[in-house]
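Hi P.,

Sorry for the delay on this. The queue was packed all week, but I finally got your sequence through. Input first:
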Amino acid sequence: MVVAEVVLYEVAGAVGRVTINRPERRNALTWDTVARLRAALAGAREDPAVRVVVLSGTGEKAFCAGADLAAVANGAAGGPEDFGALLLDLWALGKPTVARVRGYALAGGFGLAVACDIVVAADDAVFATPEIDVGLWPFVASVALIRAMPPRVALELMMTGRRLGAEEAARLGFVHRVVPVDQLDAAVDELAATLATKPPVAMRRGRDAFYATWGLDAAEAVERLHPLLTETLAGGEATEGRAAFAERRPPRWPVAGPPVPRE
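Then the structure:
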């Protein structure tokens, strides 16, 4: 399925693959591209066959170089609020997301990568927020950045605009795995396949709870999470999981129902 030429969307097994397809512009974002990405994510969210989403960019040079400044400054429909909505779509997807990063992940592209649950980067990946050098600031992307690393580290990166490689990114904690370029696809495929074997309802509830309670004080978080634990313990997946454990066999998860409507 091609949502538009600038965004490719395909489903292979339980994995939905969303690819920014503007290699001639280092996969930079226009407002139309953002809208197409949101449409692809909506399709993945509504498809019960999709259990994992992999986000990537076409070509060898960039995951996403951020906003296409020439395009977004010419009065095209859309605006920064659309990029913010894209980040919220990722967090509300209800399914694991994996960023496959090769080459540059800059500005909004940096924010887009770390808005995914897990980041797998090739050893040629480069991350930066260079907006300050053109008189801008990554206002919306900063929401993702300060949730992916120590906030004062994010502030330093935003103030200096400096570039950092994949190994430093892994040390800072916002890249989960660094692999040689020729092993990137295999590493992402292996991770996606592993995630796809997990119980979908427990995954959705747990992932949603993670984002919903992020930043809450402990007492409020426990108050919200306790009912979810009770409900999940009584569900079909937990029943099957206990039976499979007792019988020493792989679990056979019940088919997940439709996604919970977004508020």
